[in-house]
Amino acid sequence: MRTAASAPSKRAADFQWRPPDRRHRRRVADIAMATGAFRPDEIEVALEVFDDFCAAPGVDYRALAAFADGAMAGFAFYGPTPCTVDTWDLYWIVVHPDFHRSGVGRGLIERVERDMQNRGARMCVIETSSRDDYSASRRFYDACGYKEVARVPDFYDERDDRVTYTKLFVGVPSPRVSARGEDEGRGEDVRGTALRNSNS
């Protein structure tokens, strides 16, 4: 949620929520670019994650997108964190500026959290930027119940800290994810790199 755009007429209930597929690759890049929050190399990483998801959905990454009249309005990429027990990362959550303040960001994060919990997650981790133009994103995470737990000074660049947020899920029954990064029920290998997010 990098900027506050004027709200469109649609509400969250008007959107369709489903995983994206290969046809949406260009739209993923366009949405990330439209926010103005990401460098070209960061957008390339988002596309690498998207390609990995499309090649093997649910193995390394999971994905969810919001659609309005067939056009993608926002997306989220997430998955189990390697070498942890039931910790998950929300790697990317990005909403096109045309749909800021429409409930897309909230709708994505709520559905992602529900999917995580259904798969036994006990914690979600988000990493984002300390820059002023990410202040709305940080307020969004606060409003969604996330707590800032750490900062790494100058991580992304000079005067651009990495800010880590976490949210604990309570009372979640679990298909356990082992310390090797494998789901013990399905034998899935899970890997990924968390990046800063831009959402609404």
TrEMBL record:
<feature type="domain" description="N-acetyltransferase">
    <location>
        <begin position="20"/>
        <end position="170"/>
    </location>
</feature>
<dbReference type="Pfam" id="PF00583">
    <property type="entry name" value="Acetyltransf_1"/>
</dbReference>
<dbReference type="InterPro" id="IPR000182">
    <property type="entry name" value="GNAT_dom"/>
</dbReference>
<dbReference type="InterPro" id="IPR016181">
    <property type="entry name" value="Acyl_CoA_acyltransferase"/>
</dbReference>
<protein>
    <submittedName>
        <fullName>GNAT family N-acetyltransferase</fullName>
    </submittedName>
</protein>
<feature type="compositionally biased region" description="Basic and acidic residues">
    <location>
        <begin position="179"/>
        <end position="191"/>
    </location>
</feature>
<dbReference type="InterPro" id="IPR050832">
    <property type="entry name" value="Bact_Acetyltransf"/>
</dbReference>
<feature type="region of interest" description="Disordered">
    <location>
        <begin position="175"/>
        <end position="200"/>
    </location>
</feature>
<keyword id="KW-0808">Transferase</keyword>
<dbReference type="GO" id="GO:0016747">
    <property type="term" value="F:acyltransferase activity, transferring groups other than amino-acyl groups"/>
</dbReference>
<keyword id="KW-0012">Acyltransferase</keyword>
